[in-house]
Amino acid sequence: MSARRSILGVRMRMSLDRFHDLGLLIARVGFGLVFFWFHGYPKLMSGPDGWERTGRAVSNVGITFGYEWWGLAAALAESGGGLLFAAGLFFRPVCLALLGVMITATLDQYTRATPAPEHALKNAFIFAGLFLVGPGRYTVARLWGRGRGR
Fold it and tell me: Which secondary-structure segment (H or E) carries 148?
């Protein structure tokens, strides 16, 4: 019985391997668009006061100036980066930028009265892992005939 399960497990694994790039596409588009809509876009629309509030997170790493600029940079990284992430364009640089924003957000959570770093930390791990894996075969660049795939 265990040999049969093993054979079925190997067959299932082998048959699902061909969907690797489709799985990356689904994860990338879903995560990227949700990241844009629920993280980047609201920050971008919050204006200078919101950018300053967001930008104050960099004080946790010793930066004590330009909070409005840092907040705008985070908003642009999360909104533009979310869309580029979904499209698979400039994928690895976008992953690094968003990883930096998520590390800063994680550190900022520890300064709050009721810290909740788990969401930003999970996002950081997603960006770090996908930085290594890459965007997969199905990207906008490849659709336009310019990408190499994996």
Answer: none
